[in-house]
Write a structure and sequence with these properties.
Elements lengths: L1 E6 L7 E2 H4 L10 H9 L3 E3 L2 E2 L5 E2 L4 E5 L15 E5 L3 E6 L13 H8 L8 E7 L8 E9 H12 L4 E9 L6 E5 L8 E12 L2 E10 L6 H8 L26 E9 L6 E5 L4 H8 L2 E2 L1
Parallel strand pairs: 10-15
Antiparallel strand pairs: 1-6, 2-5, 3-4, 3-6, 7-8, 8-10, 9-10, 11-14, 11-15, 12-13, 13-14, 13-17, 15-16
Length: 292
């Protein structure tokens, strides 16, 4: 089924499809997304399957087809709490211990169809898809697109740093300053994390700090690397806490939660503002220690 059409009305110079069609469809906002759609056979020129190297001429009609359904998509029957949902996207509370997606059966992505309603919009995806990722041991807010257009728009919001994210973490040690901006490269790319102290705790000689974290970039393991890099690893982090290097990840709990999201709904006059309460494991840990 055709979900978008575009008529070429004028051209200032000869152009190939991969260059001309980057911004003609609302559902496709980047050149890489366009190339993928062309490769999947979703783009037509005058009702014929198009290729990236095709030349575009005035009067041509360029069409975008709905993605084909994947009939054998596995469904993981995992109960997930849904905090917001409409026909465009949903926001869920991702459970720790499951990867967001990947070549596994037990992923959050494979559980979305079991928990979310099907979109009624014509450009709906064959299955809901996460727009960003949370680490396997991290719990918290995850945005999942239900349509092609929503996936494109939400991805652009992340790229333009228009999604305000808040994380809560318990780290080892007494954090000396109340506020800190960490600017340190992750995987040779700029990475920025603002840190605010929430509470300090002590038990015998062990001290811990509850932090609010505000990343403005989204590098892999950014928060975990940044905090370990200033000698305040997140509690239970077997990858970056040198004291836990010989521990099995399943034997530890990572005290990191994606606890807040704030952004403008890309299709409605609505501000999405969602915040999670602390998980029971956080609260239990905090109440067992003496507040400083």
């Amino acid at each position: 089924m055709i979900i978008e059409r575009h008529l070429v009305q004028s051209l200032s110079q000869e152009m190939r499809l991969q260059d001309y069609a980057v911004h003609i469809f609302e559902s496709i906002q980047t050149k890489s997304a366009l190339k993928k759609a062309i490769k999947r056979g979703q783009v037509l020129i005058n009702n014929k399957v198009a290729y990236t190297g095709d030349w575009v001429k005035v009067g041509y009609e360029i069409s975008l087809l709905q993605p084909q359904e994947k009939s054998e998509r596995p469904i993981f029957r995992l109960e997930i709490k849904v905090l917001f949902e409409d026909d465009y996207f949903a926001i869920i509370d991702k459970l720790p211990g499951f990867p967001t997606n990947g070549n596994y059966f037990k992923t959050i992505e494979n559980a979305l169809s079991y928990n979310l309603k099907s979109s009624v919009l014509k450009d709906k995806l064959s299955y809901p898809q996460p727009v960003h990722r949370l680490d396997n041991p991290t719990r918290g807010l995850l945005i999942c697109a239900k349509t092609m257009h929503a996936k494109s728009k939400l991805s652009q919001l992340f790229q333009d740093h228009q999604v305000n994210k808040v994380y809560t973490a318990i780290v080892k040690g007494h954090f000396e300053t109340q506020k800190l901006l960490i600017k340190d490269e992750v995987d040779n790319k700029e990475a920025f994390t603002e840190v605010l102290v929430d509470q300090h705790f002590i038990k015998v000689n062990d001290q811990f700090t509850v932090l609010k974290l505000f990343p403005t970039t989204g590098r892999t393991h950014q928060l975990r690397k940044h905090l370990a890099g200033i000698n305040h690893p997140i509690l239970g982090d077997v990858l970056y806490d040198p004291d836990l290097k010989n521990c099995n990840e399943k034997s530890q709990r990572l005290y990191l939660q994606a606890s807040g999201l704030n952004f403008e709904h890309p299709f409605k006059d609505q501000i999405i503002d969602i915040n999670l309460d602390l998980p029971k494991k956080f609260s239990k840990f905090i109440t067992s220690y003496k507040k400083l």
